[in-house]
Write the structure tokens for this entry.
Amino acid sequence: MTRSQRPVDRDVDPRPAPSWAGVDATESDLGEPAVSPSWRGDVSAGVDAWTQRAERTARSGGPDDAAGADGASRPFGEARSSGRRGSRARGGSEGRRQGRSRSSAGQPPPDRAALGPEADPESVARTILLDQLTGRARSRKELGDKLAQREVPDEIATALLDRFEEVGLIDDEAFARLWVSSRGAGGGGSKSLARRALSQELRRKGVDDEVARTVLDEIDPDDEEQAARELVRKKLRSLSRVDDVTATRRLVGMLARKGYGSGLAFSVVKQELAASGRDEPDPLE
């Protein structure tokens, strides 16, 4: 009987069995597939393995997501967690380095040639002094305080102040005269300060006491008295509705604040009240 005439066993499937089914697919001695009479593999185990692999691929987004660097597969949870840690670590350090490189690359180094040479402290201090002296005179102390405020070195400030004083740009005596003429009794302004008040202001400006005394001695006492009278007359216009006692107290207090002595103040107030039709009351009443 030839091979083609052999009876076919209807219980045997002539197709080769898949490898995952546990069937030995090698040929027998007769050249036919050697089929096991019963399934030697667990089909459900193979199906489960294939199904889990498909689910891991779908959740990871690609077939290589759960694989290591060498291509070997590893548990899905381990692959995701290690990838997350690795990306965070790389993102933290590399992100900081890239941020520093971008910030440094975005700001080119300054062009020192375009900026020009650094300013000379002496030239800066000289400019400050000239600006301060524009418009009105200032005392040496005022100018020195301004240079200190602008952080000019002390040695440079002293040298420049001495030089400006030598050429006459700084003159405390001339400054004191201008100050007295503008704010003193002879100025005719609303201030009309007396000697005592002017002396205090010149001391605050840094003028030497001897220089201030020399300038204040030039004030004419008659001019000072006349200035006091002018102040009392202007103030009386707003005191028409108060009694004489109140008016006297306010007028004397005003003159005292402007540096006038009490003797001169009471004398001027009495005379001006009488001239306006009002008598000065006795201060002891």
Q: What stands out?
A: Residues 20-31, 63-84 have pLDDT under 50 and may be disordered. The longest helix spans residues 76-106. The chain is about 55% helix and 0% strand. The CA atoms of residues 235 and 251 lie 7 Å apart.
